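Researcher: Next sequence.
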Amino acid sequence: MKYKRILLKLSGESLAGSQGQGIDSARLASYAAQIREAVALGVQVGIVIGGGNIFRGVAGAAKGFDRVTGDQMGMLATVINSLALRSALEEAGQPARVLTAIGMFPIGEPYSSRRAIETLEEGRVAIMSCGTGSPYFTTDTGSALRAIEIQADVMLKGTRVDGVYTADPEKDPSATKFDRISYLEVMARGLKVMDLTATALCKENSMPICVFDMDTPGNLLNLLKGEKIGTIVY
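Model: Next structure:
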């Protein structure tokens, strides 16, 4: 097995599926099945999921909410997605626990790196919600932080695109894909792999990032088995 412990970052927008917002039950079930297969292989799986399918703090600020309130609303959106994912995992026979960076008992248990690691070592999936628990930080930064805290081998960023490109492949058909790219080149080229804070945090702590297409069933399992899928940022 290529990795023993992973932090999987899932996009809230991807969870919406073809409907564009809310939670697509078929997409949710697909994610749960892939995650269950990963755990069955012996991989410890920590998850951070965004909330963009429900509410984005930056978008809220543009509509008149102050940034702190908007980001807090976005954090609550991540909790809704986390609860939905836990329910889908349990339906698939995979135990999971939701940990929240903001006190929210009994909806979720308070997050600590120790509790998250204990959850992973018990064979459960640890779903870590509310981002960092502070405004002005994205869930990408929350993912980078959690990956470092739980001592993951890699941060896997599951998106609807199959890797990192020279430009947005959905807008520029001439864009070419990288198999590997350094943190510094990502920052120098201004590529939107993650926000700058998250990329810098991974660089400072030598946390490799793999960007891959999570919406294609089987990709996660094949990646964990060592197949060349997605783009490695190192």
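Model: The mean pLDDT is 95. DSSP finds nine helices and eleven strands in the chain.
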